[in-house]
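[Meeting: bench + compute handoff]

Bench side (C.D.) handed over the final construct sequence. Compute side (W.E.) agreed to return the predicted structure before the next meeting so the bench team could plan truncations. Sequence as handed over:
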Amino acid sequence: MNDRKPLIVGVGELLWDIFPDAKKAGGAPVNFVYHAAQMGADGCAISAVGDDELGDEIVSELNKYGIRNCIEKVAYPTGRVMVELKDGLPTYDIIEGVAWDYIPLTPKALDLVRAADAICFGSLAQRSPVSHTTIGALIDATPETSLRIFDVNLRQHYYSKELINESLLKSNVLKLNDEELLVMRRLYDLTDSDNDVCLGLLKKYGLRYLILTAGSVASTIYSLNETSVIATPKVKVADTVGAGDAFTGAFVCSVLTGKTLREAHQKAVEVAAYVCTKQGAWVNYC
């Protein structure tokens, strides 16, 4: 192995979670990039913000946390998610017609992904035609040897069987949680055991890895030659924000730096558990 840091890119939503008394920057692809970079990768986020105060603030936040980015300003407001707490449980209203719905395809972004060792994307940012087209073009531009991670990240009604199928055909790594697996079962009329369903998806779409997380219970990573199951460590949870993205970022970075599947899985579990003990998605590993 050489000493070059793997270049890991996340493309998709960049937004503010707006709580009744505060706001926090986030978005699954950006969280993924942050954690991959914390693990030692060269991480970069691709998205868009508005030419507004919220856009300036969120770019400043990225820079403050050392998140390298390729963020364009577009003629739409910066993304927001309105979060309400009812009896301690959050409900979300993901605002439509925002900047990350209109991520432009730029020469800078294309040059970036052409050198990428991995690219991560989800379903949410593909809800609009513009970002859907851009994300598809960026994935197609990555080298054949790159990991193409589809973190399904199903939210509200912003997905369909057709979109998931198209994304799976472009990817070679699938990441989903146990709740998303239930949705996949319904959409694809899958009735076998979880193990057989996951192995079936792995083979059908020619995936290198399928990552299934089950919250506080366990996680499983499948490849054609190996299956790794690790119980989730018991920790004092501050919140689970970004834990799934931390898991994926740590696993991908570990695999790209020469770790075995089992070693990479163990590191992903440890990092995700640690993130759960801290508040917020962007925690310092030191």
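W.E. noted at the follow-up: The chain has a mean pLDDT of 92. C.D. will use this when planning the next construct.
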